Amino acid sequence: MNKNALKASIEINQPINLVWKIWNEPEHIIKWNAPSDEWVNEKIENNLIEGGGFLYVMAKRDGSERFDFKGTYTEIIEHKRIAYTLDDNRNSVITFAGHNPVTVTETFEPVADLDLTMQQEFCQSGLNQLKAYAEQLS
């Protein structure tokens, strides 16, 4: 991870097994993985094994922006840590701490030519959506 890595974190009032499931299963990812209501997931694929990959196709509802978020898992420690490398060679690490509540922290290498504050806020907003979705499942 490079020294310019950004970080976002959230505490979720749910047990770790549920948070892990929501983070990793496509039928859940599609419901929370967006920074705001103006974004949707058009497609979610996830093969959660080391060397496996994922693809999240995200788009603005108005059609003005669309991108693929795609990478390969490099480390998986169940209920603790997920590391991956994106197709553009940037790295990310997701940590899960605690059992209930669970703190989810995402540390990621930013895109060099995009505003860093915008990238950190985009990530934090996604985690906020995760928390809202997870906690309404009670």
Write a compact overview of the structure shown.
The chain has helices at 16-24, 26-32, 116-135; strands at residues 6-12, 39-46, 53-60, 66-77, 81-86, 91-97, 102-108.
Question: Overview of this structure, please?
Answer:
The protein has helices at 16-24, 26-32, 116-135, and strands spanning 6-12, 39-46, 53-60, 66-77, 81-86, 91-97, 102-108. Helix 1 (16-24) crosses helix 2 (26-32). It has a seven-stranded antiparallel β-sheet with strand order 1-7-6-5-4-3-2. It has three helices and seven strands, in the order E-H-H-E-E-E-E-E-E-H. The radius of gyration is 14 Å and the shape is globular. The N and C termini lie far apart (35 Å). The chain has a single domain (6-135), classed as START domain (Alpha-D-Glucose-1,6-Bisphosphate, Chain A, domain 4). The protein is an alpha+beta fold and 138 residues long.
Radius of gyration: 14 Å
Distance between the termini: 35 Å
Taking the sheet with the most strands, its summary is: 7 strands, antiparallel
* Strand residues, percent: 35-45%
Count up the domains.
1
**Helix amount, in percent?**
25-40%
CATH architecture: 2-Layer Sandwich
Task: Give start-end ranges of low-pLDDT stretches.
Answer: none
Instruction: Indicate the CATH topology.
Output: Alpha-D-Glucose-1,6-Bisphosphate, Chain A, domain 4
CATH class: Alpha Beta
Q: Return the structural class.
A: alpha+beta
- Distinct helical segment count: 3
